[in-house]
Amino acid sequence: MSDLIQASSRDIDGPLLVLKDVTTHFKTPRGLVRAVDGVSFTLDRGKALGIVGESGSGKTILSRSIMGLLPPRGTVRGGSITFEGREIGNLGRKEMRSVWGKEMAMIFQDPMTSLNPVMKIGRQIAEPLQIHLGMTKQNAWATAERLLQDVRIPEAKRRLEQYPHEMSGGMRQRVMIAIALACGPTALFADEPTTALDVTVQAQILDLLGEQRRDRNMSLVLVTHDLGVVAGHTDEIAVMYGGKLVEKATTKGLFANMKMPYTEALLNSIPRLEDRSHTRLSAIAGRPPDLVNPPKGCRFAPRCPYAQPKCQNEEPPLVPTAEDPNHLYACWYPVGSPENTEIKVRIAASKSEFAAAAGGN
Amino acid sequence: MAGTGKAHLRDSPDVLLRIEDLVVEFPVGRTGLKVNAVSGISLDVLRGETLGLVGESGCGKSTTGRAIMQLPRPTSGSVVFEGSELTRLTGDEMREARTRMQMIFQDPISSLNPRRKVRQIVMEPLNIWKRGTDAERSQKVDSILEEVGIDPTRAAESQPHQFSGGQCQRISIARSLVLDPSLIICDEPVSALDVSVQAQVLNLLEDLKAEYGLTLIFIAHDLAVVKNISDRVAVMYLGKICEVAPSDVLYENPAHHYTSVLLNSIPVPDPEVAVTKTAIEGEPPSPVLPPPGCRFNPRCPAAQDICRTEEPQLRAVGDGHFVACHFPTVTPVELSTR
Ligand SMILES: Nc1ncnc2c1ncn2[C@@H]1O[C@H](COP(=O)(O)OP(=O)(O)OP(=O)(O)O)[C@@H](O)[C@H]1O
Ligand SMILES: Nc1ncnc2c1ncn2[C@@H]1O[C@H](COP(=O)(O)OP(=O)(O)O)[C@@H](O)[C@H]1O
Ligand code: SF4
Ligand code: SF4
Ligand SMILES: [Mg+2]
Ligand SMILES: [Mg+2]
């Protein structure tokens, strides 16, 4: 379809989105929750960025900070967010309203809670078109029908007249995508869009997002805890841990040359189809840090197999690798470095010593 | 015969659970129509075995799990557990039998009573069944909590919402263990957890299974997860069984076209391999009016005329490997050679 509502102002030069030292803290009775704690990165136009990390690592709050969708009370924000050269990090919900829909749109994990259960699907798509783009009702409904076709919903015309509960989970997520795409956003934020879905439907939805991104020259931010999901569907990956960015690289660069022990651990915890059944999974012991009292040095130190005394005391800065200035990581003993190899050898030696001692009695 | 066959059932003294021709139907309002949630499936599980049950949402996995527990009683068919026919037990007898078979669910937080302290929740089955003295109960609960990695002191002071999703799943597992069941039916126990917690819970289940000599039925939609924990896997589609095989065989040599679809849908955590291709279009049709013949035929790339009229029966394609398909991707074993 050639008359797609394309991402607006696509041809302006420069990065689409620039984050500088962004912090989002929440005041709570327990103390200050440092949900996002000094995150900087740049996102180019038309690119797909994956944000990966365990539950509670700050992925959702980071994307909500960019969207300006934070609770109004008790939120303390810092740093700078520029979108198409304009500072938006300090805008309130009211001012952000002009940005939502046309500039940025968001889809969430649970489509049922974000759709209005008592409003027909057609009206839920058409109304924003009338409000944001000033379309006539007739035009808006025709566009809504075409949007449903774009997201591969069969019998689009009939579906416009249905309510959310009459659809499957996968179908509702497609409707959410149609609504998000309606005003031709420049950037789409998808927060765990497939976590509630089957593997088969997940594959369909990820392909759909990729295809729409290319057709519309839109940027996509894909938030997930599963490195498998982002591997085939992003250009770049940002790994978060304890509210911080701990590694960022091109998707190919990250998998080819993983630096952060945390990224390695996340990857190793995924069950592999090619492994024999009952293969022991390498789980990451313990839990992510308490964001009220995060550990002093490296936040991953309490769970890191390679942690050394230095890790407990000094926080590692985010630095580029020797080979690639765009591959950033925060670790004192990165995977693949001579220091890390030495630690690995020591761990292996003490393990076999232990085994020998255990076997020797 | 209307069922999908029983060639895969085993004749062994070690069979702990055997279901035959299980049918579960639900009425659709007052329309006279019915949801064909489970349509004549047969399965068995040996003592100490883990049986995986995979398939897309709505294919009848949970309904099968609940029908085994007689929650509700199936429309027809037989469920024999530890030698007794559960479908014929009285309410009281069935309640007793349910102490030997437990179920854990996908949403760990909402499956625990939000107003009780966690240690009480885990203790409750022991109180209901008046097992042991107070001291014995306490000791048992604390040792099981330790076993699943929950601090008993914290459990005594805290309610479920004060624990993470992964911890709540550990608590559900602890509660399912206190009555010393022989069978645990795990209904998507890791689907709501992130990958690192998922790995912890899968490892925990393996350890507990070995320690307590448990038999497991493990329900999920992700074949990589199911393969990791199961000895044998049954693939379900729209209330029927498509294929049964040892886990490793199912992956190395899938015989049913639907099994291949499930395998190809799993995201590969490697950008060099992760070719973007949709494994299958569309969604399963409604179980109210399932397609005649092979229920997978409207979505099957290999469907022929016979698939639209005749239902395929399960037949052997290898050692312990069975498929219900007219044109399987693995050549069936001749009857004479079996
Ligand atoms: N309104 C709030 N007040 C206080 N703390 C909050 C608030 N919202 C989020 N948090 C905390 O901020 C941290 C980061 O939350 P966030 O939702 O971004 O995590 P996430 O990485 O998206 O996790 P998940 O994978 O579970 O979605 C968590 O510790 C969370 O409990
Ligand atoms: N109590 C019920 N009443 C009516 N239909 C039901 C009921 N329980 C399940 N179903 C239907 O039966 C089919 C199988 O459901 P279920 O066993 O939950 O699938 P799965 O666990 O494989 O996702 C679905 O179509 C579902 O909607
Ligand atoms: S800095 Fe130390 S503790 Fe942190 S990830 Fe690197 S090796 Fe591990
Ligand atoms: S029986 Fe026919 S439709 Fe069914 S899976 Fe086999 S080839 Fe496909
Ligand atoms: Mg989140
Ligand atoms: Mg289910």
Automatic annotation (TrEMBL), chain A:
It is a peripheral membrane protein. CDD domains: ABC_NikE_OppD_transporters. Residues 17-267 form the ABC transporter domain. GO terms for biological process: peptide transport. The keyword rRNA-binding does not apply. GO terms for molecular function: ATP binding; ATP hydrolysis activity. It is found in: Cell membrane. Keywords: ATP-binding, Cell membrane, Membrane, Nucleotide-binding, Transport. GO terms for cellular component: plasma membrane. PROSITE patterns: ABC_TRANSPORTER_1, ABC_TRANSPORTER_2. This is Unannotated protein. It comes from freshwater metagenome.
From TrEMBL, chain B:
One of its GO terms (biological process) is transmembrane transport. The keyword Acetylation does not apply. Gene3D superfamilies: P-loop containing nucleotide triphosphate hydrolases (3.40.50.300). CDD domains: ABC_NikE_OppD_transporters (cd03257). Signal peptide: none annotated. Keywords: ATP-binding, Nucleotide-binding, Transport. GO terms for molecular function: ATP binding; ATP hydrolysis activity. Belongs to the ABC transporter superfamily. This is Unannotated protein.
